[in-house]
Amino acid sequence: xxxxxxxxxxxxxxxxxxxxxxxxxxxxxxxxxxxxxxxxxxxxxxxxxxxxxxxxxxxxxxxxxxxxxxxxxxxxxxxxxxxxxxxxxxxxxxxxxxxxxxxxxxxxxxxxxxxxxxxxxxxxxxxxxxxxxxxxxxxxxxxxxxxxxxxxxxxxxxxxxxxxxxxxxxxxxxxxxxxxxxxxxxxxxxxxxxxxxxxxxxxxxxxxxxxxxxxxxxxxxxxxxxxxxxxxxxxxxxxxx
Length: 241
What we know:
Shape: globular
Strand order of the largest sheet: 3-2-1-4-6-5-7
Number of helices: 8
Strand content: 15-25%
Oligomer: single chain
Order of helices and strands: EHEHEHEHEHEHEHH
CATH superfamily: Spore Coat Polysaccharide Biosynthesis Protein SpsA, Chain A
CATH topology: Spore Coat Polysaccharide Biosynthesis Protein SpsA, Chain A
Number of strands: 7
CATH class: Alpha Beta
Largest sheet: 7 strands, mixed
Number of domains: 1
């Protein structure tokens, strides 16, 4: 357990947002965080965006001293962006959010963090409900892939860095939490959604479909890699992935 005695009123909380080409979305998410006093740090990791994301971030940072901007010189993926944010903070508790959320409100953030701060869980999973049928269905089918989470920061020490490459971070985190015996609670984020990744503007419908197959291939690979130590008899087989 982490020692919170130096935080007499409440634990230190940091929000980490990986961002890649989110110039049209991220300011809205940051506005919600700015209106949530319980969050002490807001760390945005720009993963070598090719648009004007950094310009938007600088404008937002000028409005709130809690906002910190970190930049990757080349694209490294969501998992590494989160590790970069984590390495830049001493917060005992983390809030992980996607940068393209719609209809996010301070009460959603409070709901994600409450079970962690009240020591009723070590991690929460924020699942969309009533925002958009496609993202609702995705969360219903694969809740362990949600990018909206509250958690104890020390849980990240147990994640396989190899498994978290590409689109594998969420499944690597879920496997680590299970292997550590962490208590996990589901929190429904009513009205929240984001555009399905394959329908983002930079992808056509056809290429978006191929992207989804690639994404799930990386997710399966991440599960195999993250679970390797749990199933040592299959190690030789798993080395193939």
